[in-house]
Write a structure and sequence with these properties.
Blueprint: H1 7-13, H2 20-24, H3 29-50, E1 65-75, E2 78-87, H4 108-116, H5 121-132, H6 138-146, H7 148-156, E3 163-178, E4 181-193, E5 199-207, H8 212-224, E6 229-235, H9 241-248, E7 253-256, H10 258-266, H11 271-285, H12 290-304, H13 309-317, H14 319-322, H15 330-337, H16 340-356, H17 362-377, H18 387-397
Parallel strand pairs: 3-6, 6-7
Antiparallel strand pairs: 1-2, 3-4, 4-5
Length: about 400
C-alpha cells in the first residue's frame, strides 16, 4: 500500500501557490514534481542495479555511475525533459521509463486498446471522458496510435525460425480511401505452425494486385529474416504463388486449402441440398488414397452435375494442387486441414473493418491489422492437439529436413 503524504509536506509544496497555473501550468508544481520523482526513482533503480548508493566509493565493483543522458518524454500533452542516469558498462535499463519509451501517460494503453477495437478518435475521446473524466485531444489520440507503426515495423522485421512445418496464406479485403477514391485492398497474412506446434503469424503485406513478382518479394523477405524451409504451404488459389515459392523454397510442397475448397463448393448450394451434398463431398476429401478420391469425385459428379456442375469442375480443375493431401498420413492431414487460427483472425478483423469503413491510407490499415492480430494471438496459448505424433510423421515424410 502506498504511504500517505503528510500534510506538512503538502503545505510546504504549495506555500507559494497563488493561481491554478502555479500548480497545473506548463511549468507548474505538478510537472516539476513529476520530473523530480521520475529522476529520483531512476536514481534508486541505479543504486539497486549497481549495489551501492550514490557518492559512495565503488571499491572493487566492476561497474559504476557514468553521468546522465537527457531524454524528452510526453506526459499528457506536455513535453518534459528528464535526466537518466548511466552506468559505465551500459547495462542499466530504467524500468519506470523504459528505453525507447517516449510517453509517460497511463492512458496510452487505454487509447490503443480502444483503437484496436475499432473505435474512432471521437469515440475514444468520449469514452475516456465518460469513464475516467479525462479530456484528450484528437492530436493526442493520433500521436499515440501513430507510435504503433514503430511496433509494426519492428514486428514485421523480427528474426524467424529456420524451419516451419506448415505455412498458411490467406487474404482479408479492406477498403482504402486515397485521392478521393475508395478501393479494395488485399491484406495478405502468413500464418505458420512452428516446430513446437504453436501458431505464429509471420507477417502481413498489402498489395494492389497479386502475382509472381509480389509473392517472390514476400518469400525473399521471409528467407532474409531467417527461414530456410517450409515443408507444406497451404494456399487459396493465390495467383503466381507456386512459381514464387518454388524459386525461393524449392522443396516446399504446395497444397490447395481444403477448407476453402469446401466453402467455395457450398457457396451456391440451396439449403435443402446442403446436408446431402456435403456428405457426398466429404467422401472425396476424406478418401484414404488419391484413386479412391477420384472415384468418389466421379460419383459426386454423376449425382450432382445436373444441378451444380461447377463444383466437380472446380475440384477437377484444381486437382494437381489437391492431390498431395491424399499422400499425407492422417496426423499431417489434421494439421493442414485445421485453419481455425487464421479463420479466427479473419473473423476478428472483419468485425473491426466493418465498424471502421474505409481506411485513409496503408499505414492506417497496417496499424489496425497489427493490433487486431496481436489481440488474436493472445489466445494461442496451446500447441496443436497430438502435435508430438504429427511432428514424428513430418520427420518421416520429410526425412532429413527437420530434427526432432
Amino acid at each position: 500500500m502506498a504511504t500517505a503524504i503528510k500534510d506538512e509536506i503538502l503545505d510546504e509544496l504549495i506555500k507559494d501557490y497563488k493561481k491554478p497555473e502555479d500548480l497545473i501550468g506548463a511549468n507548474g508544481l505538478i510537472k516539476q514534481l513529476t520530473k523530480r520523482l521520475l529522476e529520483r526513482a531512476m536514481e534508486a533503480e541505479m543504486t539497486s542495479h549497481l549495489g551501492y548508493k550514490k557518492n559512495v566509493s565503488s571499491g572493487k565493483k566492476d561497474n559504476s555511475r557514468n553521468g546522465h543522458s537527457s531524454k524528452k518524454i510526453t506526459s499528457g500533452e506536455e513535453q518534459m525533459k528528464i535526466d537518466i542516469p548511466r552506468d559505465r558498462k551500459g547495462r542499466f535499463e530504467p524500468q519506470i521509463v523504459p528505453k525507447h519509451q517516449r510517453r509517460f501517460n497511463g492512458f496510452d494503453d487505454k487509447i490503443i486498446s480502444l483503437y484496436s477495437r475499432g473505435m474512432s478518435t471521437t469515440d475514444i475521446q468520449e469514452h475516456l471522458k465518460e469513464i475516467y473524466g479525462v479530456t484528450v485531444s484528437p492530436t493526442l489520440v493520433s500521436d499515440v496510435t501513430s507510435e504503433v507503426m514503430e511496433d509494426v515495423r519492428e514486428w514485421q522485421n523480427r528474426p524467424l525460425d529456420p524451419v516451419y512445418p506448415v505455412l498458411f496464406l490467406d487474404a482479408i479485403m479492406v477498403k482504402s480511401r486515397e485521392d478521393g477514391k475508395t478501393e479494395n485492398r488485399a491484406v495478405y497474412l502468413a500464418l505458420a505452425i512452428n516446430m513446437e506446434g504453436q501458431k505464429e503469424l509471420l507477417g502481413m503485406w498489402i498489395a494492389d494486385t497479386e502475382g509472381a513478382k509480389f509473392w517472390l518479394n514476400v518469400m525473399t523477405e521471409l528467407k532474409n529474416r531467417g527461414v530456410k524451409d517450409f515443408l507444406i504451404a497451404c494456399i487459396d488459389g493465390l495467383k503466381g504463388f507456386p512459381e514464387a515459392i518454388n524459386a525461393v523454397f524449392p522443396g516446399t510442397e504446395i497444397q490447395l486449402c481444403i477448407v476453402h475448397m469446401i466453402r467455395n463448393s457450398l457457396k451456391f448450394v440451396s439449403y435443402k441440398d446442403y446436408k446431402e451434398l456435403l456428405a457426398d463431398l466429404k467422401r472425396v476429401y476424406k478418401a484414404q488414397t488419391e484413386d479412391e478420391a477420384k472415384l468418389n469425385l466421379d460419383m459426386f459428379a454423376a449425382k450432382w452435375d445436373s444441378k451444380y456442375p461447377t463444383i466437380s469442375q472446380m475440384w477437377k480443375r484444381n486437382w494437381e494442387l489437391l492431390r498431395p493431401f491424399f499422400a499425407y498420413p492422417e496426423e499431417i492431414r489434421k494439421v493442414i486441414y485445421t485453419t481455425n487460427a487464421i479463420e479466427s483472425i479473419n473473423s476478428s478483423a472483419r468485425k473491426i473493418i466493418k465498424s471502421r469503413g474505409a481506411f485513409p491510407n496503408n499505414d492506417a490499415i497496417l496499424k489496425m491489422m497489427f493490433l487486431v492480430l496481436r489481440n488474436a494471438a493472445k489466445r494461442w496459448s496451446m500447441p496443436i492437439r497430438n502435435w508430438g505424433m504429427a511432428l514424428s510423421r513430418f520427420a518421416i515424410r520429410f526425412e532429413g529436413r527437420i530434427n526432432i
